[in-house]
Write a structure and sequence with these properties.
Elements: H1 2-13, H2 18-27, H3 31-59
Helix pairs in contact: 1-3
Length: 60
């Protein structure tokens, strides 16, 4: 589960992931801008994933 959560956050937020590179080339957007725009997604996803693990630990 940790691997899948890390992969999902990395793919969506990293400017070097294949999907973000394709978008930046296709729409002529700087990788720096993509990273800045995806920062709220990465932080909220990181907090949500942490909450899922904390809830699992608390319930188990």
């Amino acid at each position: 589960m940790m691997f899948l959560m890390g992969w999902a956050l990395g793919t969506g937020s990293s400017p070097l992931s294949g999907s973000n590179l394709a978008l930046s080339v296709r729409y002529n957007v700087k990788a720096k801008d993509i990273m800045r725009w995806n920062l709220p997604y990465a932080v909220s996803g990181w907090l949500l994933c942490g909450a899922v693990f904390a809830a699992h630990d608390w319930l188990a």
